[in-house]
Structure formats: structure tokens, C-alpha cells
Amino acid sequence: MKVKPKLFIAVTEAGIKEVRLGGKSGATHSRHKREGALARRWRKAAGEELDGYFAGRLRSFSAPCDLGNLPPFTRAVLRITARIPYGEVKSYRWVAERLGNPRSSRAVGNALARNPIPIIIPCHRVVRSDGTLGGYALGLNWKRRLLELEKNHLRGF
Hints:
The protein is α+β, with helices and mostly antiparallel strands. The protein has 5 helices and 4 strands.
């Protein structure tokens, strides 16, 4: 089973702004002519880190994420989600509790559905309280594949 998708990575001088399925000729990124040196650095770092993640050599990402245009609640949800360790799964309720509002599970799910930086901000590691997957911005098939990838690589270490 092929695990690494073709990815489009959008960057700003502040960091990674978007990761989505798609790309040209298997590319892991797309360059823009007016991109500054710092943005190019973040794009290169994200591409290398994503390659390492899919190869099972990397468990966390260091390239910064640019969440500046997102609503404060969504930024808070994504910051909590970014700290979920590789191979672990948490519930929407768990994230809501970390926000100080355990009744906001549905709002957490809605915020995660709009995660512009999936994989790097690992919203695939958040599931329903009953253990079922819930939704995923890249589709449930990719959520399953990413969780399986992490599970398999953990066994190999």
C-alpha cells in the first residue's frame, strides 16, 4: 500500500500555512516566484519532514506553522492537537477538556475539520470518545492510513 500522497504545501515567511492533497508530478511542494528566503526555508523543511514522517523516520515536526489568519478558538484547538504524541490517539472531548470546556467537543471537531495543516498538526490522532474515527479533512481513508502508519512504525522501533 502506497502511503505517501502527493502534497501541496503553502508557506509564508511565518511558516507552513497549508498542506493539502495534490501536487504536480509527485512533487511535495509548489514554489511561488515571489517567495522570500525564509518561506523557501519553511517549504524545504516541511517537505523533508513530511518525507521523513512517511518513511517512518520522523515522529514530530519542527517547521513552524502560520496560524495567524485562523479564529482564536481554532488556533487554540490546533495548538493542543499539535502536542498529541506520535502514535497516540485522543478524543475530541480530551481536547475540549484541555481548552477548559469539556462540553465543546462538537466545536473542537468543527475546528479540526478546518485544520489547514493536516499531518503536521496531527488532527488524525483525534477520534470520537467511543473510539470511532469521526471525520478528517483529507478523508477517513487517509485518517485510517496515517494512524496505521504510526502504529506500524512504533512496532518497528
